[in-house]
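dumping this here before i forget
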Amino acid sequence: MPKQLVILETMPSADDFYGLYWNRRPFVVRGGIPQNHLMDLIGADELAGLALEEAPQSRMVRTAGDLKDWSCQFGPFSEDDFKDAGDQGWILLVQNVEQFHPQTATLLRHFNFAPRWLMDDVMASYSTPGGTVGPHIDSYHVFLVQGEGMRRWKVGRQPIENEVYVEGLDLKILADEYDGDEVEVTSGDVLYLPPKFAHESATLENSLTFSVGFLGPKLSELFGGYGQYLSGLEERDQRYVGAGLMGDSAGFAISGDAVDHLRGSLDEQLKTMDFTQWLVAFFSGSSHEGFGNYSEREDVLAANDLQEKLNEGGSLIKPEYVKFAITATNTGSFQLGFDNQNFALHEGLLPVIQEFMKEEAVNLKNMPGLFDQSSTFELLLDLYNHQALELA
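structure:
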């Protein structure tokens, strides 16, 4: 079978990414992340410190020569856990690092060609020689950024649809061999893996790796989420009253016409603005419990205070860890989602929001018309007071 793994010298354009690689083919970008940027990301000691805390989800996988001796321990950990681990044969993985270490979140700027409204989290892992989680597959898209050290990856050439796992382990390790390509990655290299492509790593020297994951919802989550949203709109949440039923629906029989009518009712609801408003809110929420609840900051600003800070030369900026979702409507307006909330935008607001989505600073020098429309300023104030924006 021909080699599937592509080696690139630069990150792909958005058109190339979706046309050639997304859901299709893995690739490696040599030196995809500049060294000066890697220096700002969380280090090994800080990562171990995070794993001592209650809030981050963390786990340590210890490996041995025999699979049956492998183990997976969940945090929070103690300092003794790291002392006892030794200097070989283990890997520490910590989820949602972008929420706890804002500088690590700046890594996301390099992936604006990917659908950041599907971004799940940035997981950081520290591995010693021999440390690995074994051959496995993921149900999401992932970019593996090598921060420090060197690892060798084996990447499958085709997605695996009916995987079989080794029994009796806490880890989902593939039981069967797979055809794959091997590649060594060093600091700054980026490996992209579509869903279901088997992969495994061998840590050649102490390594720090950042996994930027993009995870889509299940259909059941979409149906359930929209149903819950609709239940709060009493005037829209119409009860089925059996309009148009005929004799062929007597007794326990549901006629074909009744089935079509019920299906049509659902389809009709999905074409409404209600669904669009819910969708941007849904995709802007966190997929991890405990993050995101549209809470006001402690130091809420009044409108005149924010206006004064901007007049004095201040800027507003969206932190990289804040997720936005935006879509156009069939009326020419836009819907913006942030932290499970939705906001209606008129066309004049779009340039301002687009600057925020680039993680660029917005101020009266580059956007002199910020105060021209009260609706623009009111939205900025609302977003700032609910921690979507920060003053720079």
